[in-house]
Amino acid sequence: MNMEINLQRRKALKTGGGVGLLALFGALGLLQSGVALAEWNKTAFSAKTMDDALNALGVIVPENGAASIQLSVPEIAENGSVVPVTVASTLADVEQITIFVDKNPNVLAANFTLPTGTEAYITTRVKMGQTANVIALVKAGGKFYRTSKEVKVTAGGCGG
Amino acid sequence: MGNPMKIRAAVKDGVTEVKILMQHEMETGLRKEADGTLVPAWFITEVKAQYQGRTVLETQFGQSVSKNPYLLFRFKGGAAGEKITVSWVDNKGDTRSDEVSIAG
């Protein structure tokens, strides 16, 4: 509920108070660093199912990435609130790496855009509410590849 | 203004490895207090890393990213003493930007 209010507030700021906000960011020197101008994909990050998330990201049917994506996750996570995930790929021209947890309330965890020169190697940490599949999606040369691994969670990390 | 990040960047064999530890609660909006009230969602939505003013990583986070988010990435290039700048923004519009020099 509160999240909705905040998002509406953001939207209002972006549209109604856009000029003021830009001036404010300019004053803070943030325009220089460029943050806050890229559009956060609300539809994709609110998706409850993998299909919805993939649709929102514009993914048609990803190819099997089992051989070309190296997804490192623990087999068993004693603490679901901090599960390390590393995604690497041997594919050429990797443009994007995306991490999903298929049984979390919001399946999309993180999306990385890699400019030319940035290597296909990302580590982060995610929360997992229960035993689930961690899914890595890699976009390389305009094509999508997907692989997944199950992580057994003995204590969930999403609270409530 | 959010709390400062811990950033380490080091160059080896022509590749710079950057490790970032942000300080943020990353509330999902689904967690309840003991009295049953819902804790509002509060999480970093975007992180951007720049090397000498050029973007080297653009990140979008959702609620599933752990509290105090950690990121590791690598890019080609970089030299000792050059600057890496990391900035984030959260769903409440709060921001934080920190800079570090690449270690040799």
Could you describe the 3D structure shown?
- The complex is a heterodimer of chains A (160) and B (104).
- With 160 residues, chain A is α+β, with helices and mostly antiparallel strands.
- Chain A has two domains: 2-33, no CATH class; 46-153, Sandwich (Immunoglobulin-like), CATH 2.60.40.
- Helix content of chain A is 26%, strand content 36%.
- Chain A contains five helices and nine strands, in the order αααααβββββββββ.
- In chain A, the strands form two sheets. In chain A, strands 1, 3, 5, 6, 8 and 9 form a six-stranded mixed beta sheet that branches.
- In chain A, strand 8 (132-140) and strand 9 form a beta hairpin.
- The longest helix of chain A is centred in the first third of the chain and has 14 residues, at 2-15.
- The model of chain A is unreliable at 15-37 (pLDDT under 50).
- Chain B has strands at residues 6-12, 15-21, 44-51, 54-61, 70-76, 83-90, 95-101.
- By secondary structure, chain B is an all-beta fold.
- Chain B has one domain: Sandwich (Immunoglobulin-like), CATH 2.60.40.
- Helix content of chain B is 0%, strand content 50%.
- The mean pLDDT of chain B is 96.
- At the A-B interface, helix 1, strand 4, strand 6 and strand 7 of A face strand 3, strand 4, strand 5 and strand 6 of B.
- Strand 6 of chain A pairs antiparallel with strand 4 (54-61) of chain B.
Supply database-style keywords.
heterodimer, A: 160 residues, alpha+beta, Immunoglobulin-like, 2 domains, three-stranded antiparallel beta sheet, 9 strands, globular, B: 104 residues, mainly beta, four-stranded antiparallel beta sheet, 0% helix, elongated
